Structures are given as C-alpha cells and as structure tokens.
Amino acid sequence: MPRIAPYESWIQQAEEIEFPNQVFIEGEYVDAAAGQTFPCHSPIDGRCLTQIAAGDSEDVERAVKSARKAFEDGRWSALPPKKRKRILMAFAEKIRAHADELALLETLDMGKPILFSRTHDIPSVVRTIRWYAEAIDKVYGEIAPLGNNELGLITREPLGVVGAVVPWNFPLDMAALKFAPALAAGNSVVLKPAEQSSLTALRIAAIALEAGIPAGVFNVVPGKGPTAGQALGRHMDVDMISFTGSTEVGKLFLKYAGESNMKQVALECGGKTPNIIFADAPDLDVAVRNAVDGIFYNSGQVCTAASRLLVEEKIHGEFMEALLDAARKIEPGDPLNPATEFGTMVDETQTGRVLEYIESGHREGADLLLGGERINQESGGCYITPTVFDKVRREMTIAREEIFGPVLATIAFSDSSNATELANDSQYGLQAAVWTRDLSKAHKMARALKAGMVTINSLDSYKEVMPFGGVKQSGFGRDFSLHGLHKYTQMKSTYIALD
Fold first, then answer.
1. Which CATH superfamily is domain 274-463 in?
2. Residue tagged active-site, from 106, 268, 312, 341
3. Are 448 and 404 within 8 A, CB to CB?
C-alpha cells in the first residue's frame, strides 16, 4: 500500500493546488464554445473550488470531429500494437507519478477520504491501464474451419469514436475502466465526466498527451447531462457510448442511440446488492465487517453497495448486535485527514436525496437502529451519519430503490428459498453475496440469484481478470477482463477463395 502524507501536508497542498477547468480538445485546453461555466463546490466545506467550462453540443461537435480525424488518419488506430502498449504503459506511469495531485483533486471534488483516493482509487487506475496495455498484443484473431481451397479470417477492429460517460462516485477509476480498453483497442475517445466531479478527468487529459497519446485521440468535455451528455449520445459520428450511472439515464442513452445512428451502447447502471448471511457462515465476525464496509465504504456511494442485508432468522439478533457495535465506531470526518475513513456525500443534491430516503424509512414503518442524521452542517459540508434500519419489508422504498448513500435496510429470512425470493425481488441485478460454509448451498444460490456477479463469503467483486456487469435494469455489457476490451471492437469476417 502506498505511503500517505500527513494531514498537515494535504491541507497545505489543498491551498496551493491548481484546478483544471477547461474543455480539452485536440490536445489543448480551451473555453467552452458558448463561454458558459458552472461552479465546482467541495462537499468538504461547501467552498467553490473553481468554475468549470460547461460544454454543450458545439463543444461535443468539436471533440468528435477531432477524435474522428485522429482515428481516420491512423495516428493512434494504425500504430503497431507494441507501440500503443508502450505509450499506455507510459501513461500509467505518469499517473502514478501524479498520484498525490490526482488523489487530492478527487477528494476535494467529491469528498472521498484522502486515505482511499490515494491508496485505492489512483493505484486502481494505474493497474487498469497497465492491464489493458499488457493485453494489446495478446488479442488474437481466428481462422474459420473451412475447406482446403478457401480461407476464413475473423479479426477484431476498433469501433472508431467512443463516447465515455462516467459517474461521480469513482470519477477517475470508472473513467479508466472505459478509456483504457477503448484506447488499447485503437479507438479515439471523448470522455464526458460527471458535472459533480470533473477535475481528475480534465487533469489526466494533459497527462495522456505528455505520455505520448497523440492530440485528438483523448478529448474531455465537461458539462451537464442534458446538454453535453445528450449531445454525445445523439451524435451521428459517435460509434459507441459506454455509460456508467443511473438506470434512468442509461435508458436515455438507449433512446438517443435509436433516434440517431444506432450506435452501440454499453450500460452499467443501478444496483441494490442483497448480502445474504446464513447461520452457517464460516466466520460471522468477518461477515459483520464485510457487511459494514459493504454499505458504508465511500459513504454508500457505490453501485454494488450491499444495501440490502438479508440475515437468517436464527442468528438475526446476534448478527445485528455485532453489526451495530461495529457501525457505531464509524464517524464522518474531514476527508483530508488520512485517519478519516468515512467522508461526505458528493453534494447538497445527493445529501437531500439520501435524507428523503431516510425519512421514507421512518414513514413506512422500518425501525431506525442507528444514525439517520445530517451532522457538521455548520462546516458547510455534506455529512450524513451511518444509518441502519431493521424490520424492513420488501415493499418499502428503502428496500427497492437505489439510495446511493450510507443507508442499510435489513430483512430477516427463514431459509434458502425465502432468501433467494427476497434477493431476486428487485429490478436490479448487478451483484449478490452469499455467506455459507455449505458448498452445495453456495453453488445452488449462485445459480438461482439473478445477478451479473455473485460472490461467496466475500463482497470483493472488482478483479481485473473477471468480467463485471449486470443483468435486468442494472444494464448489459462487461467491464474488466478481455471481455471489457472486446466490447470496444467489432468483428470482421474475411473470406478468401484460394482456387
């Protein structure tokens, strides 16, 4: 794990850091075409860090033209695989060298504890880019099984211009899951970061150029979803949209694709992870720690947050007592303090949204066992305490909707069949977790659960070598692994008659 600077150092760096705030097109920072901006407020204390260029359809048009020209002239797409690999490796190394700066931008922008920005998020970005750089010269074509007088070649080609639209909870980490495989495959990219957290995306654009990625290949257009996001989704010269965010917005991108050029769309949308604890779990203490981390990590702003805790009736009381003991030790603190493990909501809007869900839990009859309050409001920041509800019924709002905050809904179950029924009673299907020492039960549950990823005796689903993505209204398409690279390519069949 990387060594992390002391609290005082981060405070000083926060006072001195420069904030990137312009659109990045054709290797240059420029103002938005219309000259519009929007404020970037830090959820740590509410202060305005900078005014960010509000890109719109004209800026998207310029970025797509730049990306298309770069793709067609082959400055990146036609490079030999080994050369693209060397440049992406250099890109990863430069990000590693700028780790402190990027981690600080991430923390100031969305309130993530500097401990996690510096030791988890930025190292994860570096690993992702390196992994896909290594994969570039290991993707093979195929030979079709034809007769001796004919030859069938099956090859993969880059799509062209990829629009990447990313969320605010892991701003750079989620962006890397898109631009790393897209660039590795030879595409040009137009990245649209979330308006709540645009700073790191804008900063790495210049770092990419320094690493040797040619101008025009990697463009960044900050802006609001209904303007910049929609313009990218509807653009007739964008070949693919890769989106991570809410199910509601994901459906809009499907609509935009159908109403424009039928561009490919890959969606990783909402989640409502059921975390199923059986009485025969191998270690209940480990299960408790994972249940706590699974909902309160990143203040619950995680697509796979284990927000539905399903506990077998015979151990329900014991498990909840241990969970509450652990959760009471978590206190929101200054994200710039390396000792802080629980930061803020991303902004005032999300803070209000989470508080409304907590109120709905009260109103609909769930038992509030812990938290449920906004604190430190005098600081100007967006802090909500870890919140635990029990005696939640499946029809309650907090059991059905993605809250994206530190709110745990607990439901007791009687047996495997009941647990499976409760777990699958959701529009989402991103991840599910099962805790049991019974191998047969684990296999049967994994098959029965409707989720793109099932973890057994763990909640850790992020592995570079395993595809990640959802089913149902959690979306389709996969990140990570070679499947995450293949989706940024198209297959071509070439038939050759030898006689």
1. Aldehyde Dehydrogenase; Chain A, domain 2 (3.40.309.10)
2. 268
3. no
285 and 322 Cβ atoms separated by less than 8 Å:
yes
Residue 134 bears catalytic tag: no
d(CA 30, CA 53): 9
Residue extents of the structural domains in the chain: 7-269+475-493, 274-463
Number of H helices, E strands in the chain: 17, 24
Q: What percent of the chain has pLDDT over 70?
A: 100
Report, as an integer, the average pLDDT of 478-498.
Answer: 97
Cα separation values, 109 from 195, 230, 299, 404, 486, Å: 10, 23, 15, 17, 32
Residue 391: pLDDT band (50, 70, 90) is very high
Whether residue 243 contacts residue 265, with contact meaning beta carbons closer than 8 Å, is answered with yes
Assess whether pLDDT exceeds 70 at residue 1: no
**Domain covering 7-269+475-493 assigned CATH 3.40.50.10860 in the classification:** no
Parallel, antiparallel, or unpaired: how do β-strands 188-192 and 431-435 relate?
A: unpaired
Please give the pLDDT value at position 31. 98
Six token digits for residue 289:
């720690």
Give the model confidence (pLDDT) of 232-259 as tens digits.
999 999 999 999 999 999 999 999 999 9
Q: Write out the two tokens for 118.
A: 């510096």
pLDDT at 190 (0 to 100) = 98
Tokens 């209204």 locate to 473
* Residue 247 near residue 427, CB atoms below 8 Å: yes
In the residue annotation, 268 being an active-site residue is answered as yes
3 state DSSP class of 178: helix
Angle between helices 171-184 and 99-110 (to 10 degrees): 130
- List pLDDT tens digits, range 413-423: 999 999 999 99
Residue 376 amino acid letter: N
For every residue of 63-131, DSSP letters joined together read: HHHHHHHHHHHTTTTTS-HHHHHHHHHHHHHHHHHTHHHHHHHHHHHH---HHHIIIIIHHHHHHHHHH
Q: Could you give the maximum distance between any two Cα atoms of the chain, in Å?
A: 82
CB 53 within 8 A of CB 37: yes
Residue 155 DSSP one-character state: E
Instruction: Specify the amino acid at residue 41.
Output: H
Q: Which of 303, 341, 382, 464 is catalytic?
A: 303
